[in-house]
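seq as requested:
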Amino acid sequence: MAKTSKSTRSRIVSTAWKLFYRDGYDNTTIDDIIEDAHVSKGSFYHYFASKESLIDGISYLFDEAYEEILDNIDEALSPIDKLVTLNQEIFFMIENTVPVHLLTRIMSSQLTAKGDKHLLDPDRTYFRVIRQIVIDGKEQGVFSEAFSVNEICVSYALFERGLMYDWCVSNGNYAFSQYASKIMRVFLNGFTI
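struct tokens:
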């Protein structure tokens, strides 16, 4: 039952984001999403109160992408190379499937959210993946003892959000994943000293 529930929610979110990208957020209706996702109106409203609440669903897409990337990542890569690869792949996905105006809306929704801030949820796959890579890096002596696992994880997530913010402010006027992969490596090397 839980797996079916997760797949229905995931299908709704994935369909919505595909339509948002293709047709634009304002031009996509709930009925469009329901039809393309092959779910009932009741199923949609079971998971989401409105079209706006789908904005929060982006974290699920990111987490699914992280799981897929992690399944295919070369285990021989160093912890820094793994983090750079994860970042580059996610940012490539964002660059090619999430319009800048929608990413801006996602980022701003987190600023005004009164309850849970889904991008900061420590139980997300995102944080579990990053934490495990950083733990492995600490055990391998890659990361300096001057920084705790938590400090590195929080800093990494903060830096990623900063890069997303800058790309939004710049209206997507540069190659997001390409730029991020260069600067992320420089940033992570600061934890090796």
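The two ends are 48 Å apart (CA to CA).
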